[in-house]
Design a protein that fits this description.
By secondary structure, this protein is of the alpha/beta class. Helix content is 38%, strand content 19%.
């Protein structure tokens, strides 16, 4: 009986480890410079990641209007933005924002979801490529929601999957000395 229990525990541990690997992004690493993204916003103006990160802490969030888990995570993102948008970071003079990269194909659905979910931050972009999105390919995004916390130097500070809460990491940045 003891051997059966040990075997079951080992099998569960292997399964959990395999699933964790399946849901981890191996293309992007903490500490690396975030690759440039330059795509249109809903008004058609091209936004550049490098311009947005300059002097800011940025949560780079990959999502889509058709993604149920993404939409369910929207209230947490809104709360995160409201909590930190006016915070004074010692190393980021322009503060905090979110840059949402949509994997939508339909512009009307994308824009409607931004409005319906009250995603009030100013930075939204999409090439309307769905899973063929150049941004998703560049960042190795194979599932959504997925996000990356970027420092004002444009480097990746942390990676998050399935709506994980970046508050702990953002709080550390608020306390960080120059």
């Amino acid at each position: 009986m003891k051997q059966i229990i040990v075997a079951c525990v080992a099998l569960l541990a292997f399964t959990f480890h395999t699933q964790a690997q399946e849901y981890s992004n191996t293309k992007m690493s903490v500490g690396q410079k975030a690759p440039e993204l330059a795509f249109p916003n809903p008004e058609g103006k091209t936004l550049k990641l490098s311009e947005i990160t300059k002097g800011r802490v940025v949560l780079l969030d990959f999502w889509a209007s058709w993604c149920g888990p993404c939409r369910r995570a929207s209230p947490e993102l809104v709360a995160l933005y409201e909590k930190y948008k006016d915070a004074k970071f010692p190393t980021a003079k322009k503060g905090f924002t979110i840059l949402s990269v949509s994997l939508d194909k339909n512009k009307e659905a994308w824009v409607a979801a931004i409005e319906q979910d009250k995603l009030t931050w100013p930075y939204h972009m999409s090439d309307l490529g769905s899973w063929n999105s150049k941004g998703a390919q560049i960042y190795g995004v194979q599932f959504i929601p997925q996000s990356f916390l970027l420092g004002p130097d444009g480097k990746i500070i942390a990676k998050y999957t399935m709506g994980a809460d970046p508050s702990v990491d953002i709080d550390k940045l608020l306390k960080k000395k120059h």
